[in-house]
Design a protein that fits this description.
The protein is mainly α. It has one domain. The protein has 4 helices and no strands. α3 packs across α4 (36-46). The termini are far apart.
Length: 47
Amino acid sequence: MRLGLGWTWGPFELIKRVGPAWLAAALRADGRPVPEMLESVGAEAVG
């Protein structure tokens, strides 16, 4: 996806850069569903 769209970082690289916990919190703040996998990875990254 990164190469096909000419992005500097792919979607998973972006999640790694901002942090999964931050992304989960941002999704929650926008009233969007948070995927279970992102919740579990975010919890591991924080605690």
